[in-house]
Write a structure and sequence with these properties.
Blueprint: H1 2-7, H2 27-33, H3 52-83, H4 96-113, E1 125-127, H5 129-133, H6 137-146, E2 151-154, H7 157-166, E3 172-174, H8 181-189, E4 194-196, H9 198-204, H10 208-211, E5 212-215, E6 218-221
Parallel strand pairs: 1-2, 2-3
Antiparallel strand pairs: 4-6, 5-6
Length: about 230
C-alpha cells in the first residue's frame, strides 16, 4: 500500500491509529513516528455491519468455537492429570556446529561474489531483534561475533543500548528509524548506527552522501559523524 501511495505521488499516507495517549513510551507510536509521521487526532470510527444478522451469527459461532476448544483442552489436560501423563514441554534446539557451518558458508559466498564500492570485502549483518529471536540477545550476539559476524542489527532503542552496555560491540545497527530527538541523542551517545527516514535525510542535506551508508536506497547514518 505504501509503495502504491508513493507511485501515485500521494502527499499524505494514513498509518492508522496508535493505542491510548500518544507517548514516546508507546512502542507502536514510536515505530510509526519513526517514519516521520505527524500525530493527528480524529473523532473516531464506527463499524456498521453490512449484514447485521449474518454478523451476529458469525460472532456467536466464533464465541461457541472458542468455548468448545477451551472445554476440549480442559478435558484433555484432566485426562492426562488422572493418568499422571502430563508432559507439556516445548524447546527450540539450535545446533551450534551447524550454525557455525552456515556462517562459514555465507562468508565464503560473500567473499567470492561481492565487494563494496571501495573494493573492500562485504561485511555480514546479523539481525538479533526480538531478544535474538528468542535465543537471548546477549548470548546469541556473543556467539555470532565469535564466529565472524561484523555488524549486529536490532529494531528498538532498548535493544541497541542493552547490547552496547553488556556487549561492547563496535558495530550496532538500528533498523527502525526514529525522529524522536531524545532517542536520536541516546543512540548517538552510544555510537549506534541510525536508520534515517526521508525527513532526516533532507535535514542532513547534501553532506548525507559522504556521511551515510546506502543499503538498497535506505540511508544508514554513521553515528560518529554527528559528534
Amino acid at each position: 500500500m505504501i509503495k502504491l501511495a508513493v507511485a501515485n505521488k500521494s502527499e499524505i499516507y494514513d498509518l492508522r491509529g496508535v493505542p491510548g495517549i500518544a507517548d514516546d513510551s508507546n512502542g507502536l507510536y514510536r515505530f510509526k513516528k519513526g517514519f516521520g509521521a505527524e500525530y493527528t487526532e480524529f473523532i473516531g470510527e464506527v463499524y456498521i455491519p453490512f449484514k447485521p444478522l449474518t454478523y451476529k451469527l458469525y460472532k456467536f459461532s466464533e464465541k461457541a468455537f472458542r468455548e468448545l476448544r477451551a472445554l476440549k483442552l480442559k478435558k484433555i489436560m484432566w485426562g492426562c492429570f488422572q493418568r499422571k501423563e502430563c508432559y507439556f514441554f516445548e524447546a527450540l534446539v539450535v545446533e551450534k556446529e551447524l550454525l557455525k557451518h552456515n556462517i562459514r558458508k555465507i562468508k565464503e559466498i560473500a567473499e567470492k561474489t561481492g565487494r563494496c564500492e571501495d573494493n573492500k570485502p562485504l561485511k555480514l549483518i546479523a539481525v538479533v531483534k526480538g531478544n535474538g529471536y528468542g535465543l537471548g540477545l546477549i548470548e546469541y550476539s556473543k556467539f555470532l561475533i565469535e564466529n565472524g559476524i561484523n555488524i549486529l542489527a536490532v529494531s528498538t532503542v532498548e535493544e541497541a543500548i542493552e547490547l552496547r552496555k553488556k556487549r561492547n560491540t563496535k558495530n550496532i545497527l538500528m533498523l527502525s528509524a526514529t525522529s524522536i530527538k531524545r532517542e536520536i541523542e541516546l543512540l548517538i551517545e552510544n555510537d549506534i548506527t541510525l536508520t534515517l527516514h526521508q525527513e532526516l535525510v533532507q535535514l542532513f542535506g547534501k553532506n548525507c552522501d559522504s556521511k551515510c551508508i546506502w543499503i538498497k536506497k535506505v540511508a544508514y547514518l554513521k553515528s560518529n559523524v554527528l559528534k
